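G.,

No rush on this.
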Amino acid sequence: MANYVHVVLLSYFVILGNFALGDTCQNPQVSSESYTTTDATVVVNIAFIAQFTVKCSNNVKNLNLYADVNGKIIPVTKSLEENKYQVSWTEDPKKVSSGEHQVKIYDEEGFALLRKAQRNGEDTSNLKPSFTIGVNHHGTYTGPWVQSEFMAAATALVVWYLAYSAKSKI
């Protein structure tokens, strides 16, 4: 009887271990699209949105992914469509530069290694992400160099000066 209990417990832990490990994506094929806010005249922060599709050679689906954006970890959202994901974040317009922003995407195993390295104060640059996507930001329009109120006041002063000068010559 004792041997039977040991066999059942061992089988239980082996099966549980297989579920806990999960599958990792082998040779991911990634296609992505991105959007960024370009008008900063009425918004407080610039929004970055990246949608991407992941196809694995071993047909793994519904991965739990995490994004590393400039050292900040962001969970990746799964879409209702199969193998589609989205990551989004915001940044201060004064700190955002135009150009390509690289987003490192980690699976659960890579994310665990990343968090462990961060907790221990180790260098994370040598950790390899599952894949990287690029988000292109074309720049941010912050408004005209001269405000319209200033132009209206300056025009009013010029018109007043011309009218006053014309009146004094009469």
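When you get to it, here's the other one too:
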Amino acid sequence: MIHYPEEARIILRRLEFHYTPKHAGWLSMAETEISVLSGQCISRRIGDMETLKREISAWQEERNKKSAKIERRFTNTKARVRLKLLLPIRIIDTWCYSTDSDR
């Protein structure tokens, strides 16, 4: 489909661009928070929107009261412990290099 300049300008005026950061750590955090919400709060069927809003609001209030945080980074030592369940030792040793901060 060929767009002529004037038609292209009309289409362009209707578009809205949303730029996201190159390093989308915030997106991972949002996905993690939604996963926690799903597991702790809405892992069952909820009948109506009002109940859902109340449940999420109560969960959020409790989480804020506890100052719950997402741990985004961890040391190589912690990585070895967590990844040990998922990966063979040989791969873990290849990926995780010892650093002074681990000692």
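Residues 96-103 have pLDDT under 50 and may be disordered. The radius of gyration is 23 Å.

Enjoy the weekend,
O.
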